[in-house]
Design brief:
By secondary structure, the protein is an alpha/beta fold. A seven-stranded mixed beta sheet has the order 3-2-1-4-5-10-11, with helices on both faces. Helix 1 runs parallel beside helix 9 and helix 5 packs across helix 6. The longest helix has 22 residues.
Length: 320
């Protein structure tokens, strides 16, 4: 290895900058040059890049988003464009790549490796849905952002004796919903991993709470489950309780990364460069039991993450 490239791809996540910084400085310390591609795979195909130095990545550790920017690039699913990207990397004397992103980004990383460019993926997605890793960069920051918003919404819900439905990100994974529901004392988390019954899981907890003297209710809904506005309207119709839905949206992706995200991103970025220096490509960096490990990309993409049923059971017990 003499020179490596790095890019951020897919949805942005707080902590991506910390990973870029770690990749750059760890690589330079190992005697390598580093090139950063703008806007993910789109920038790679357009040969849009800049050389990264110790100084150019200073003062980015605390910033949200990604200084390299990111974009979706469906064109990268085409084999001819993957080959084009490998040829561009070769022309720039790039010997390896680090791709920071989610599952879709890792499929592109796999294709680069298959076509002769050793590539390592670093998991970064606020949904925390990378099957092979206990943790993905951005999750903790998103949790804290949602927690702050819910704490404020609870104030007005209590004042008006309302029921609040909070919709959070998570089309196929309910980790944000489940974790924040427990942290904020919600009645329940409605998540894609578990089927829910409207009357059993929503109406009955509200009725039981009112009998015990509870004056406001809170439910956290993952966006992949259903329309939170419709759920709120149905609750109000069935119970007569004023119910409001709040869709938090992209606020969850922004903000300065937490200490946890900064440290894990730094460790993951450094581990990715270490793998390339040792001659390994087609790998995904992962965290298992707070240790940095790695998996073959094929193996990693096949691994599925499941929600621990006991976590949701505990949430139900504590919500009383």
């Amino acid at each position: 290895m003499r020179k490596i490239g790095v890019l951020t791809s897919g949805g942005d996540a707080p902590g991506m900058n910390a990973a870029v910084r770690a990749v750059t400085r760890y690589a330079i310390n190992a005697g390598l040059k580093v090139v950063g591609f703008k806007k993910g795979y789109r920038g790679l195909l357009a040969c849009d890049y800049e050389e990264l130095t110790e100084r150019s990545v200073s003062d980015i550790l605390h910033r949200g988003g990604t200084v390299l920017q990111t974009a979706r690039c469906p064109e990268f699913k085409e084999e001819e464009n993957v080959k084009k990207a490998v040829n561009i990397a070769s022309a720039l004397s790039i010997d390896g790549m680090v791709v920071i992103g989610g599952d879709g980004s890792f499929r592109g990383a796999r294709d680069l490796s298959l076509n002769g460019l050793p590539t390592v993926g670093v998991p970064a997605t606020i949904d925390n849905d990378i099957g092979c890793s206990d943790y993905s960069i951005g999750f903790d920051t998103a949790l804290n952002t949602v927690k702050d918003a819910i704490d404020k919404i609870r104030d007005t819900a209590r004042s008006h004796e309302r029921c609040s439905i909070i919709e959070v990100m998570g089309r196929g994974a309910g980790y944000i919903a489940a974790y924040v529901a427990m942290a904020c004392g919600a009645e329940a988390a409605i998540v894609p991993e578990q089927e829910y019954d409207f009357y059993e899981d929503i109406i009955k907890p509200i009725e039981k709470g009112r009998v015990r003297g509870k004056e406001h209710n809170l439910f956290v809904v993952a966006e992949g489950v259903g329309n939170s506005v419709d759920i709120a309207a149905r609750i109000e119709k069935e119970t007569g309780i004023a119910t409001r839905a709040t869709i938090l949206g992209y606020i969850q992706r922004g903000g300065s990364p937490t200490v946890n995200d900064r440290i894990i991103a730094s460790r993951m970025g450094a581990h990715a460069v270490k793998l390339l220096c040792e001659g390994f490509g087609n790998r995904i960096v992962a965290m298992k039991d707070n240790q940095m490990v790695d998996y073959d990309i094929y193996e990693g993409l096949e691994m599925k993450k499941t929600m621990d049923p006991s976590f949701l059971e505990l949430l139900e017990i504590l919500s009383m």
